[in-house]
Amino acid sequence: MQAYGDRERLDNLFREENNRYILTHPASRENHEKALGPMVEGVPMIWMSKWPGPYPVYVEHAKGAHFTDVDGNMYTDFCLGDTGAMCGHAPDPTVKAVQNQIAKGSTFMLPTEDAIASASLLAERFGLPKWQFTLSATDANRHMLRYSRHVTGRSKIAIHDYCYHGTVDETFAVMDDAGNTVPRRDNVGKPIDLKETTVVIPFNDLEAAERAFATGEVAAMLMEPALTNIGIVLPQPGYLEGMQELCLKYDVIWILDETHTISAGPGGMTRKYNLQPDAVVLGKTIGGGVPVGAFGLTQELAMRIATSTNLESIDIGGVGGTLAGNALSMAAVRATLSEVLTPKAFERMEKLAELWVANVQQVIDEFELPWQVSRIGCRGEYSFRATAPITGREAADADDFELQQYLQLHAINRGILMTPFHNMALMSPATDEEDVAHHHAHFREAVEALYRD
Ligand code: PMP
Q1: Which CATH architecture has domain 92-340?
Q2: ipTM attached to this prediction
Q3: Predicted confidence (pLDDT) per residue in 225-253, tens digit
Q4: pLDDT greater than 90 at residue 97
Q5: Is 136 touching ligand 1 by the criterion CB < 6 Å?
């Protein structure tokens, strides 16, 4: 969609930013030219080629809420590795714990005491008693889908229209206008017809959820408590509680993916709204930058799994991973949760996000933009529509790829990194008011260039 009408001006502004980027990033360009030899599209993972600008920024070093690139440009980082570095870059307690552990060995196929401490901290925060660890949130989600099918004997997974849960096959489906499940546009190498595996329902639509569950085919409802990957879509009052009741009524395993919504507080939206999911999925944040994912289970679900599997075959069928629960990530989680991502840190981060939102709103008001801004704890995002979206489809319809790329590149050229493919900003424990003011100045300037007469 084109949320911004003057495409010629947008093209010109983008071209100006592109030229400015080329002038100020010669060393990143040199690296990119070398990278084109040994890597596909010159990037270590293909989605990195989607950053705006002719080649990506090469990072030299980072600390807290800031990083410096190979050209010596300095940035305030609101992307924070799209939540992987939500604790700020290289937080001291995590660095210390990781240095200590790596010198003592990092992976054994055996547990360490840090695993007990990490699981206990998560149990305390999220209220779910039984935890398992993976290397990513994607894997944690996959494992939960396996277990859900296993204990219910059902084949389908329910998801929200325009959700994202990592590279999980079942989740790359959307609803067409007639309400049918269809593969998401350009879904690379889809395994089988997604109608076989997936039912898609709109966010905030309990009737659609009940219709799906009443078929008796749905093993699990995998969802974020607020959508965060198509802009932010907040739950309407009663939606989460209603979903909880429906899952209970139809014995559908209710999985809350809190990978991003952990921004709501130390126990995510689960704790904030006193929700009782069957399982919670986490990833990215909890290792303070070290790869790790986790899922927590109720006692009852852990029992259902235990009594329907047997020891000899416990490693057959898609749940596992040699490096899962390794000593290094366990040391990182323990230090990060107990010393970095503390309840006190969350309080500060949330206040900064309130300020970030107020600044964005100020610009929206000043220029009378038909845009809006939403927040989940320490995460904020603006979108190109006048009111907060209620469904993923509404949020998707407000997208404007070129406008977003311009705003992103304008930010990079002013020393600000926003989450790519979004208008999203995250506050870390190291972010401060000056950082937030830095974003305000860029945002106002970028909007002024778009709307000045
Ligand atoms: N769940 C959610 C809600 C996410 O936003 C993401 C990644 N953006 C994932 C899972 C997957 O995380 P990862 O790529 O680290 O496995």
Answers
A1: 3-Layer(aba) Sandwich (3.40)
A2: 0.99
A3: 999 999 999 999 999 999 999 999 999 99
A4: yes
A5: yes
